[in-house]
């Protein structure tokens, strides 16, 4: 009897462990069990405690993936709640003069941001810093030892740290009032749909989180439709590309054609993976009547690198714009530098000084935010240089178009811009994915010195994609391209689908479900592919 009980307990523990291992956005445990269970409990609960259901769901989701590192999220939540209340108290203190009040509030904000960033650095960047100090000390013939810590990183810490900084900055500036409810701050910082990969959410955009309104049929339907679209992109396209990308970047065989092909496949994989997971996050939140910000807007239809980043990872870009670019561009040291530069560079060139200085810190931050690797820092600097060149060259380029009697909207100009952008993006993603900066440089060099495609053709069947995989990828890419083309043209696909007879609508959605089931990358012999941007 005791033995049988022990076996049963062990089985239950194994099942729980399996649950925790599989509880991610793209697993059936998430969208077929966890999400419906959370939605059902939420709907059956009284309105006043529904936000507690969302909070418990978020903490359970966090704990299932990061265990006791949940305490880091809880501690950060308590910290920003207390700091926000402190900023409000300073603002309400009439015994202080206005300048004194502003000075005290600024000191509190700066200290709070330093502490939040220090926590992020300790979890993510400590080994990177230590190992680079070792390299520098060795080059200088100095002795410095560093024992690699390999600290576990809480899920989503890069995302909720930026949300925390934005919250405190907005409270400091008076854009929002400090939240009085600690429960609300807990929920904002741990809402499970946005935990893994964002989108990065401002507190002013999160009011629906606390409303406790019931689930409506329209939100439920459109939420699951958005989740299905995300699963289509992730399972049918991104995960089929994953083994090929891994093998090509392993360097087993490499020439310029392989390097370019690998970069192309990774670009497609990353976009389908990241945008697909964001679709799942937005759809999951929509089920509860909560609208998260869009994070992509047809980025490959952009006209240049700047426009691309206004369409790709939009919430990260707007964070950097609002909390790094503008404050630096209008800061006193930078404005003084612009005035001095005017004497030496003239009116035209000097007007680029302030935005370029701010742009440098934006792209340095972008590279560092992605993680502790030199390839990411190089990636940030790569876009800094390209966008700087674009900013300088835009006016002369428009004059050249006028000289050639060409309009910006003409087909040759648009094709030139699209091709140029696609090359820029592919090269950037090649460095982003490379195992090291050395590998990235070698691949880049091969594109110009050994560009041939015979090796790609010879090994096209040996890179981990079978004929069914190629079929799924080609069909998937064609569908996504068609959808994005229609969206860029301003055509509402949902409105078109909703206008169909109900039988055709059901047939369409069931066809999509079966296509994902049949051609999705999972099952026996398949290694589940983690969400790419969850690691950041």
**Count of structural domains:** 4
Helix-residue proportion? over 70%
Structural class: mainly alpha
Say how many strands there are: 0
Shape verdict: globular
Name the average pLDDT: 88
Blueprint of the fold:
Layout: H1 2-22, H2 28-44, H3 50-66, H4 70-92, H5 98-124, H6 126-139, H7 157-173, H8 182-190, H9 217-249, H10 256-287, H11 305-311, H12 314-329, H13 332-350, H14 353-370, H15 374-403, H16 411-433, H17 437-449, H18 454-459, H19 467-488, H20 493-498, H21 502-519
Task: Report on the architecture of this protein.
This protein has 536 residues and is an all-alpha fold. It folds into 4 domains: 1-44; 46-214, no CATH class; 215-303 and 438-536, no CATH class; 305-407, no CATH class. The protein is 72% helix and 0% strand. It is built from 21 helices and no strands. It has helices spanning 2-22, 28-44, 50-66, 70-92, 98-124, 126-139, 157-173, 182-190, 217-249, 256-287, 305-311, 314-329, 332-350, 353-370, 374-403, 411-433, 437-449, 454-459, 467-488, 493-498, 502-519. Helix 4 (70-92) crosses helix 8. The longest helix is centred in the middle third of the chain and has 33 residues, at 217-249. The chain is globular, with a radius of gyration of 25 Å.
């Amino acid at each position: 009897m005791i033995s049988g009980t022990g076996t049963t307990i062990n089985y239950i523990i194994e099942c729980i462990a399996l649950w925790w291992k599989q509880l991610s956005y793209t697993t059936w445990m998430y969208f077929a069990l966890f999400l419906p269970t959370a939605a059902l409990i939420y709907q059956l609960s009284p309105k006043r405690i529904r936000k507690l259901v969302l909070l418990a769901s978020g903490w359970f989701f966090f704990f299932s993936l990061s265990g006791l590192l949940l305490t880091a999220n809880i501690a950060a939540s308590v910290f920003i709640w207390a700091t926000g209340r402190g900023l409000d108290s300073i603002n309400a203190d009439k015994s202080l003069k206005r300048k004194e009040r502003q000075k005290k509030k600024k000191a509190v904000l700066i200290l709070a941001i330093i502490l939040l960033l220090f926590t992020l650095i300790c979890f993510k960047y400590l080994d990177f810093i230590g190992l680079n100090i070792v390299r520098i000390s060795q080059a200088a013939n100095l002795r410095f030892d560093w024992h690699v810590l390999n600290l576990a990183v809480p899920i989503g810490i890069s995302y909720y740290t930026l949300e925390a900084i934005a919250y405190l900055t907005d409270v400091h500036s008076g854009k929002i009032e400090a939240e009085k409810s600690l429960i609300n701050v807990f929920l904002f910082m741990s809402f499970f749909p946005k935990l893994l990969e964002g989108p990065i959410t401002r507190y002013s955009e999160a009011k629906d989180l606390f409303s406790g309104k019931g689930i409506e049929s329209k939100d439920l339907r459109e939420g699951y439709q958005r989740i299905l679209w995300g699963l289509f992109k992730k399972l049918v396209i991104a995960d089929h590309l994953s083994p090929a990308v891994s093998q090509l970047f392993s360097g087993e065989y490499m020439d310029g054609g392989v390097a370019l092909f690998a970069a192309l496949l990774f670009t497609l994989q990353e976009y389908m993976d990241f945008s697909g997971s964001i679709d799942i996050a937005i759809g999951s939140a929509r089920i509860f009547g909560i609208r998260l910000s869009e994070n992509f807007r047809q980025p490959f239809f952009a006209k240049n690198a700047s426009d691309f980043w206004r369409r790709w990872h939009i919430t990260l870009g707007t964070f950097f714009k609002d909390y790094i670019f503008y404050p630096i561009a209008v800061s006193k040291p930078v404005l003084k530098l612009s005035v001095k530069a005017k004497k030496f560079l003239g009116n035209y060139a000097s007007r680029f000084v302030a935005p370029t200085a701010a742009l440098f810190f934006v792209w340095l931050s972008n590279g560092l935010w992605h993680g502790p690797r030199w390839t990411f820092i190089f990636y940030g600097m790569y876009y800094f240089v390209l966008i700087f060149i674009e900013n300088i060259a835009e006016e002369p380029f428009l004059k050249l178009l006028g000289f050639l009697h060409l309009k910006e909207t003409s087909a040759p100009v648009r094709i030139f811009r699209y091709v140029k952008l696609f090359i820029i993006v592919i090269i950037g993603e090649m460095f982003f994915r490379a195992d090291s900066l050395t590998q990235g440089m070698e691949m880049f060099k091969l594109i110009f010195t050994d560009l041939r495609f015979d090796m790609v053709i010879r090994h096209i069947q040996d890179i981990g994609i079978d004929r069914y995989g190629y079929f799924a990828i080609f069909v998937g890419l064609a569908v996504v391209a068609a959808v994005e083309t229609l969206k860029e043209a301003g055509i509402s696909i949902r409105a078109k689908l909703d206008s169909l007879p109900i039988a055709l609508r059901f047939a369409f959605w069931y066809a999509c479900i079966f296509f994902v089931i049949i051609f999705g990358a999972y099952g026996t012999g398949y290694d589940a592919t983690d969400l790419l941007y969850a690691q950041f």
